[in-house]
């Protein structure tokens, strides 16, 4: 069969034990066996470390995709890096984020199997020789790539795929060559330099940091993976048994490479290098093969996130790849020039090489010209990709551009994390929804069924009690389990607008203070997420959240009407606890900035209602459930564009809205930081004078919309009916549907629902 290779620098897998039991259909058997040994399975599960080899959405998407590809019976492989240290552990000290190394392999990893017999060399530096026999890349430094395989089981179909992660190893002669005669000890210590390549995950989400070690990581995973792909292609019965060399004509029919963002973009020049320099394939033929093999998924439109590597760094590290990129770009620009004669500005806009004080390689442009398919990750995002980010490229080759709306695996995000809800659903419609989430539509028949309404509400209440107990046990915070659990968990970023959430919390607080006798819907506002260590504003936002909590949670006038909790060290295993307990899901990015979001989908399927902007997949969630069944507020993309043309003036809102002014003045005056009154001046200054994400512009609509949330929450039956409608309409957001679309429309393969016979039965 055609093999699918999903290349990603991140795989945010979380824990594996329970997921393996669920997918193998062994959970009850194991539970019983462990119980009979006098142990508690849940206690055991809490001991496992998260595999935190990702930052957020992009890395978690890769993990969901692996689960779906196995469940759909695809011959798929995940390829990435086995980081010794994953995403840092977050400690909150004195209200500030402090990072701690994530030594996740300290006690070993039972799920991986080292494969030293498949170890491969990866080359760096050196120079290029153009000889009559062809091009040679010589005098390189070699690092070895050691593969570690982790099994990826499909859901009860006896399929087990592989995630192969590469670890960097120094060759035994490293730095011991002739020129380094004397210092043996020094040379052996220098092995660390080579092995640092797979030491640590770069902790940036939606931000490009042009470090040489990161470029090394990107080439390392690509070079090792492509050698593996080609070895497997040649050894399969399809590699035409040509005695001289394999015929690569059939390569794109047997191999599909999906690039998860631009991080593995070097696959394009590397495949060209292997085909042309090593396998001696004709250049134009090699380019056709490369384009038919590769496909690119774009994950963001934020300019600061786009990878633009200095040409000088390439020249030093990957000189042959730079030559190839120049040649590909020339070919590309010749074609554009022929189609648009005299349009010099178009050539500048479309070039892979950006001219300027520092010449750079635009990796997104490289991906677009080197792929046969380019996709965004939600309809609105794919439209922005076509109409603005890659507008020129879309005009050139509109057939290349597609949409593939993201999804989540219902095994981890419903069955595993919310067994109570899964049971209540299965009682009504059977278990088919687990592998065909669209069957949740059948729940619409029970929207007025009193027992079902009661059961759904009861499951939510039990989840809330359980999470409240967990918070008390772990963090010694007592919360009111009958309050509304209002949750915003995601990486901390200005565009995700945790600050808007903060302003609502302060506004609520001020209303309670000004009229304590009035009746308020009690809320527990929970905000969690990590800030990139070098992102000053994100760290200030965390400090602001914890400071607001300090004041509100200790004000006797407030009592348990309002609490603000910062959820420390948000990660996959914590998401599995908090999401099933949430009443309200906050998805409040400025319209046009969140490519898709996937947390939004997890909350929807787990029975929370969404307050959100028309951004990312929220748009499609509203379309599926009906806009009246979400709390949609604020500017649409068109409004944001109009405001940009007109000029956004934050002060105008500050002057006009007294509650907003009061909140900002409190932050500014040190009301929330009495020990350091000037603590938040950077935050206030940003909001007032250079807020790219227009927090104030949506404040009024947001507060009003939160009022509607309160109104509905006071009528539990009406609230639960809306919850049921949301769950019933969440079927589209299964990663099984997403992967089925990738398979048919990009990779050219058909998913299969057939269960293969277990290994203990003889095959036909």
From TrEMBL:
This is Alpha-1,4 glucan phosphorylase. It comes from Aegotheles bennettii. The modification N6-(pyridoxal phosphate)lysine is found at residue 602. PANTHER family: GLYCOGEN PHOSPHORYLASE, GLYCOGEN PHOSPHORYLASE, BRAIN FORM. Its cofactor is pyridoxal 5'-phosphate. Signal peptide: none annotated. NCBIfam families: P_ylase. GO terms for molecular function: glycogen phosphorylase activity; pyridoxal phosphate binding. It catalyses: [(1->4)-alpha-D-glucosyl](n) + phosphate = [(1->4)-alpha-D-glucosyl](n-1) + alpha-D-glucose 1-phosphate. Keywords: Allosteric enzyme, Carbohydrate metabolism, Glycogen metabolism, Glycosyltransferase, Phosphoprotein, Pyridoxal phosphate, Transferase. One of its GO terms (cellular component) is cytoplasm. It is an enzyme of class 2 (transferase). Homodimer. Dimers associate into a tetramer to form the enzymatically active phosphorylase A. Glycogen phosphorylase that regulates glycogen mobilization. Phosphorylase is an important allosteric enzyme in carbohydrate metabolism. Enzymes from different sources differ in their regulatory mechanisms and in their natural substrates. However, all known phosphorylases share catalytic and structural properties. Belongs to the glycogen phosphorylase family. One of its GO terms (biological process) is glycogen catabolic process. Its EC number is 2.4.1.1.
């Amino acid at each position: 069969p055609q093999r699918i290779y999903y290349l990603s620098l991140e795989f945010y897998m979380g824990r594996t034990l329970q997921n393996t039991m669920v997918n193998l259909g062994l959970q009850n058997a194991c539970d019983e066996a462990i119980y009979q040994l006098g142990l508690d399975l849940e206690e055991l599960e809490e001991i496992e470390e998260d595999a935190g080899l990702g930052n957020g959405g992009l890395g978690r998407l890769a993990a969901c995709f692996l689960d779906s590809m196995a469940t759909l019976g695809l011959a798929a492989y995940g390829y990435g890096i086995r980081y010794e240290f994953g995403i840092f552990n977050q400690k909150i000290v004195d209200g500030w984020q402090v990072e701690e190394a994530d030594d996740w392999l300290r006690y070993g990893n039972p799920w991986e199997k080292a494969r030293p017999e498949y170890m491969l060399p990866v080359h760096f530096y050196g120079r290029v020789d153009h000889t009559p026999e062809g091009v040679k890349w010589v005098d390189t430094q070699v690092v070895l790539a050691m593969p570690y395989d982790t099994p990826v089981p499909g859901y009860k179909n006896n399929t087990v795929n592989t995630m192969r992660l590469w670890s960097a190893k120094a060759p035994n002669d490293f730095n011991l060559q002739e020129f380094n005669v004397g210092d043996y000890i020094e040379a052996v210590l220098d092995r660390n330099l080579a092995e640092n390549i797979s030491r640590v995950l770069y902790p940036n989400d939606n931000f490009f940091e042009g470090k040489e070690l990161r470029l090394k990581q990107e080439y390392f995973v690509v070079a090792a993976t492509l050698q593996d792909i080609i070895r497997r292609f040649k050894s399969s019965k399809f590699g035409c048994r040509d005695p001289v060399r394999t015929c690569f004509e059939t390569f794109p029919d047997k191999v599909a490479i999906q690039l998860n963002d631009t991080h593995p973009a070097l696959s394009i020049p590397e495949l060209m290098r292997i085909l042309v320099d090593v396998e001696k394939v004709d250049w134009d033929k090699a380019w056709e093969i490369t384009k038919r093999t590769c496909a690119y998924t774009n994950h963001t439109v934020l300019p600061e996130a786009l990878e633009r590597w200095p040409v000088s760094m390439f020249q030093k590290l990957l000189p042959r790849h730079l030559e190839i990129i120049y040649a590909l770009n020339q070919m590309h620009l010749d074609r554009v020039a022929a189609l648009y004669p005299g349009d010099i500005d178009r050539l500048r806009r479309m070039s892979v090489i950006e001219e300027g004080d520092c010449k750079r390689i635009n990796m997104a442009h490289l991906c677009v010209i080197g792929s046969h398919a380019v996709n965004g990750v939600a309809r609105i995002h794919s439209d922005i990709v076509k109409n603005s980010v890659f507008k020129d490229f879309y005009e050139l080759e509109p057939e290349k551009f597609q949409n593939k709306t993201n999804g989540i695996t219902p095994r981890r995000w419903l069955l595993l994390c919310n067994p109570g809800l899964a049971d209540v659903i299965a009682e009504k419609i059977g278990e088919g929804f687990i592998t065909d989430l669209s069957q949740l539509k059948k729940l619409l028949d029970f929207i007025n069924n009193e027992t079902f309404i009661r059961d759904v509400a009861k499951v939510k209440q039990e989840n809330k009690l359980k999470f409240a107990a967990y918070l008390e046990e772990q963090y010694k915070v007592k919360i009111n389990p009958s309050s509304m659990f209002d949750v915003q968990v995601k990486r901390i970023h200005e565009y995700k607008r945790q600050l808007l959430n903060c302003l609502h919390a302060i506004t609520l607080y001020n209303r309670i203070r000004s009229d304590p006798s009035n009746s308020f819907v009690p809320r527990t506002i929970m905000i969690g997420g990590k800030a990139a260590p070098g992102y000053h504003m994100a760290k200030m936002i965390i400090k602001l959240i914890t400071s607001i909590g300090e004041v509100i949670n200790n004000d006797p006038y407030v009592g348990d009407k309002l609490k603000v909790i910062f959820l420390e060290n948000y990660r996959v295993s914590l998401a599995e606890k908090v999401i099933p307990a949430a009443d309200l899901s906050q998805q409040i990015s400025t319209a046009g900035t969140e490519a898709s979001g996937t947390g939004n989908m997890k909350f929807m399927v787990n029975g929370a209602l969404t307050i959100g902007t028309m951004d990312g997949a929220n748009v499609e969630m509203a379309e599926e459930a009906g806009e009246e069944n979400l709390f949609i507020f604020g500017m649409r993309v068109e409004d944001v564009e109009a405001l940009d043309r007109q000029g956004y003036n934050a002060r105008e809102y500050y002057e006009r809205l007294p509650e907003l002014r009061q909140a900002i003045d409190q932050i500014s005056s040190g009301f929330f930081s009495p020990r350091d009154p000037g603590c938040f001046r950077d935050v206030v200054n940003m909001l007032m004078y250079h807020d790219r994400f227009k927090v104030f512009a949506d404040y009024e609509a947001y507060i009003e919309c939160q009022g509607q949330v309160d109104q509905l929450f006071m009528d539990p039956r009406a609230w639960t009916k809306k919850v049921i409608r949301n769950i019933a309409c969440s079927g589209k957001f299964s990663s099984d549907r997403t992967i089925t679309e990738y398979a048919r429309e990009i990779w050219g393969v058909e998913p299969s629902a057939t269960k293969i016979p277990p290994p203990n039965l003889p095959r036909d």
